[in-house]
Amino acid sequence: MPTEASKVSRAGIATSATGERHIPSSIRPDGSVRKEIRVRPGYRPPEDVELYKNRTAEAYKNRGKGGVPGADSVSATSDPPSAAANKNAKRREARKKAAASATTKNDAPATTTANNQSPASVEPAKQEPVDPEVDKSKEAKKLAKKLRQARELQDKKEKGDSLLPEQFQKVIKINELIRQLET
User: Fold this and answer.
1) Residue 27 belongs to what H/E stretch?
2) How many CB atoms sit inside 10 A of residue 72's CB?
3) Under a CB-based contact definition with an 8 Å cutoff, are residues 98 and 113 in contact?
4) Which residue positions does the secretion signal occupy (predicted)?
């Protein structure tokens, strides 16, 4: 009774237009008729389960089929560029021409085109004026922290704990840290 619109899987399960799944009726070799068997929703027979493919193994199998690394493939050269790619190429050419003409004229237009092109190039210029007092206070905090850690290690050594060679070097440098902190 399968309709023309039914789909048949590898296991022989037909799906009707209403979404019901069943194994169609068939005739046995002795001439008797097998009746249609309804398949419960959600059941997937082993024949219909896709074979598991390990991505790493697939990549290993296909490792040499990509052609020469870095070379353009034949299909890439035959495809015409899209409208967006054409537009981007025109913009790139216009930027190059504007930059070239700006460098030949004078420096003022060159800075305006540079500002329009990449705001990231302007960022480092803003960071240059650093207050020396702020820099000194940061350095003082850093030295104070090192001194505090070295004194903690010295106390640990006086209690009888063993120190690593790097920790022992820090204890030795306490006087040097004090001198740097005073300057």
Assistant:
1) strand 26-27
2) 9
3) yes
4) none
Contact between 24 and 36 under an 8 Å Cβ cutoff? The reply is: yes
pLDDT score for 92: 92
**Matching residue, tokens 């896709």:** 50
- The pLDDT tens digits of the residues spanning 105-149 come to 655 544 454 455 555 544 554 555 667 788 888 888 999 999 999
Q: Which residues contact 113 (CB under 8 A, 6 or more apart)?
A: 95, 98, 99, 102
Amino acid sitting at position 141: K
Instruction: Let me know: does 33 contact 27? Beta carbons within 8 Å.
Output: yes
Give me the phi and psi of 122, to 5 degrees please: -80, -30
Q: Which residue has the tokens 């069943």?
A: 22
Q: Tokens for 150?
A: 């070295």
Q: Which two tokens stand for residue 106?
A: 């004078």
